[in-house]
Structures are given as C-alpha cells and as structure tokens.
TrEMBL record:
Gene3D superfamilies: 3.30.390.130, Zinc/RING finger domain, C3HC4 (zinc finger). GO terms for biological process: Notch signaling pathway; protein ubiquitination. Residues 71-130 form the RING-type domain. This is E3 ubiquitin-protein ligase. PANTHER family: DELTEX-RELATED. One of its GO terms (molecular function) is zinc ion binding. Its EC number is 2.3.2.27.
C-alpha cells in the first residue's frame, strides 16, 4: 500500500532478449532458394586498377562552364581552382567533371584525391548522394558467415520462421589494405548472431548480404564507437539486428522499417 492508502502496482522492466529459445541440430534447416549454409572469405586483395585518372575518366563528363556553386569536397567554388592541399594529383586543379549517373559536379583534382585516399579498387562513390560507380569492395578481414533457418518467429513476424546469420572473424594481423599494416587487430564479440524474418523480403536481404560479404563490405578494421578501442573489427555501415526477441537497444524486433532501410543500404 502507498502512503495514501492506495494499492501500488509494481511492474518489471522489459527484458533484453538477445537469443532465441534453444534450437537442436535437427531443427536447423537450409534456406529455400539459397545454396549452401556457409560462406568464407580469405585475404583477397583489392584488384589493382588503372591509374586514378583512367578510372575517373570512365565515370565523368568534363564540364567546360562550371555552375556558380561549391565543390562539396574542398568547399571552394567550382569556377575557381580546387582547394585540396594534400599530395597533388596529376590533373590540373581547375578542371571540373560531372558524374554521369547522378549528375553531381566536382573538381577532378578533388575526386582523384578522394579516390587515392580510398580502397583504390576501381570503383568510385559519389560523396554527395553515395551512388556507386563500378564494383565497390572493402577490407573486411578473413572469416566465416553461416546462415540457416530456425523454427521460431521474430516479434512482428509471427507468420514465418527466422533466418539466423552467424558471423565469426578471428583476431589477426592487419594487411596492406588496413589502417596499420603489420599490426595485430582484435575481434570482440564474435561469433555475432543476427536475425531476419524468413519472408520474401528477408531472403532478398540475405542474398544481398551474401554479395556484401563476398565483397568484404560487412566489417572493417577501425576504432569502436562504443568502447573507443582502436585496431579492432567493427561494423561497416550495413545495419544488422542482433536482438532476437526484443528491441530495447534499437537492434531488434519489432521494427517495421528495418527491412526497407537495410535494402536501401545494400
């Protein structure tokens, strides 16, 4: 009873549910329409492409009369020379180009410098709208991705089973494509379990995740945003759901927008 003589109702706080109920090996099934249940990556290096100038030439049209606006890379006017102050690319600082698919305009000088600071894999990503030109690859360290069906439903998806994805990346030594080549890196929190509904849209997400895994785009080596630890394996811009039966941290279900959002990212 409260001080005022009224009954007090004590409620328990919501419980974090990270994992599904126990699943036996006999209950685990392969996913219809998707071959195999495991994918590995190795230390494949990014393909050595042509010179940055040759790569950009495929994706650009020269602009003879630049518009009166800023280059969003160096923030100088497009009608003036590039303001980039780093190592100087082998193109004139006053040349301007337009990306052919999205139409955004930059100094060629700035685009070459941006390409040189990236993975140098022959692809280019527009810094304004993120449109990708060519085939983007990443620097994910070697590991294994498993995927299969379990006989439990996610909150908000009671009409279907669940796709469980298990990522496992061991610690190791950084390669030449990583931030600190030759230095060891850590891999905290593995194996990491993630979940998708076994719906048409969920299977579409899985197929694209498999492409992202093969292109080494799901993880990277960097500094953890949660612990501040450097030289460690981190997520790389593709959001995953790591809570099975709750959404207390924003990384679980129900979430009616998640599948559409992750499809847009992929």
């Amino acid at each position: 009873m409260s001080a005022a003589g009224l009954p007090v109702c004590l409620t328990r706080p919501p419980k974090l549910v990270l994992h599904p109920p126990p699943v036996s090996k006999s209950e685990i099934q392969s996913i219809p329409g998707i071959s195999h249940t495991c994918r590995k990556t190795t230390k494949k290096q990014a393909k050595k492409g042509k010179s940055p100038e040759e790569v950009l030439k495929k994706y650009l049209q020269k602009v003879r009369h630049p518009p009166d606006e800023d280059c969003t890379i160096c923030m100088e006017r497009l009608s003036a020379p590039s303001g980039y102050k780093g190592p100087q690319p082998a193109v004139k600082p006053d040349l301007v180009g337009k990306l052919v698919k999205c139409g955004h305009i930059f100094h060629l000088h700035c685009l070459v410098a941006m390409y040189n600071n990236g993975n140098k894999d022959g692809s280019l990503q527009c810094p304004t709208c993120k449109t990708i030109y060519g085939v983007k690859t990443g620097t994910q360290p070697p590991g294994k991705m498993e995927y299969h069906l379990i006989p439990h439903a996610l909150p908000g998806h009671s009409d279907c089973k669940t796709i469980r994805i298990i990522y496992n990346i061991p610690p190791g030594v950084q390669g030449p494509e990583h931030p600190n080549p030759g230095k060891s890196f850590t891999a905290r929190g593995f194996p990491r379990h993630c979940y998708l509904p076994d719906s048409e849209k969920g299977r579409k997400v899985l197929k694209l995740l498999l492409v992202a895994w093969d292109r080494r785009l799901i993880f990277a080596i960097g500094t953890s945003s949660t612990t501040g630890e450097s030289d460690t394996v981190i997520w790389n811009e593709i959001h995953h759901k790591t809570e099975f039966g709750s959404n207390l941290t924003g990384h679980g279900y129900p979430d009616i927008n998640y599948l559409d959002n992750v499809l847009a990212e992929l």
